[in-house]
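for the writeup, i need someone to sanity check this before i put it in the appendix. the sequnce is what the collaborator sent (i think, or maybe the updated version? ugh). structure was predicted straight from it, no edits. if anything looks off just tell me and ill rerun, i have time this weekend
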Amino acid sequence: MARASGFIKERTDIFYDTLTQIVDENKLQASDIFNVDETALSTVQRPRKVLAQKGKHEVGSMTSAERGTLTTGIFCMSAAGVFVPPMLVFKGLRFKPEWKIGAPPGTTFDMTENGWSNAEVFLNWLKTFVSFIKPSKDKQCLIILDGHTSHTKNLEAIEYARDHGVILLSLPSHTSHRLQPLHVSFFGPLKTYFHKACEVYFRTHLTKITVSHISHLLNESYPKSAVVATAINGFRATGIWPINKDLFEDHDFAVHTNMPVVIRNDAVTRDQPNDDIRPSTSQIMKNGSDRPFMPETPCSSASVGTSRAKKIY
């Protein structure tokens, strides 16, 4: 429901207008535009469909019965088809060297108590990105990401990006399924290949898959999904590159101007228009103070409803 109601034309228009402004002002090309996002990698594979003889009611299939442990993968690709080496975020309190065995070349690693990404992890990833892509204030690049607080309210990461020639632009909320290239073209094939690798490993070794196998399994699936055509198609299908503001038809958007609101207790139905779609300035707090912290270099931001579309220089 949130995705259906969040994908509205006015919000996407603001995003595309901001994107166009950034690209034109900084003379960016496909090789300068990136998308980064996280996805979960589980040690329990998803059972696949099984072909069986017609009329057969019971078909056997092997799968792990374990609950599994969450590992987060952070992936990034450019509109020109370049993939930044992934980062794996493991769950734990003490990092184990065996977690690195068999990982794709260039993979970096981090660890949190719950296995999720956070502000510190994103900063560490950003430093890896800068060392790999080598942007500068004279040759800037753009990273498009979702509006998670670890991205948009991460003051240290924002300042680091600004100082190293990285522009951060966040998507409107609840639009990743339409506007995020990684979601549109990459994560689907990655998960398919990853679960297939899990299934093959489980059938071959007849033992449960643990966190120590994640790197090896990712190395089996990542090269098959991280191909140039996948990245280029993802950016094209979202209208990010080449920029295509008119990619989506009217029927693709949610009807928001007369959104029905039903008050069940009183059995009353009314329409509640959503007129406030103008950008507003987001405030970044420092050291717990209630005063907004303004960096020395101007930082402009646009917010649509609960979404953030930040442009940082």
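The chain has nine helices and ten strands. The beta strands are 33-42, 70-78, 83-91, 108-112, 141-145, 166-170, 260-263, 268-271, 299-304, 307-312.
thx in advance!!
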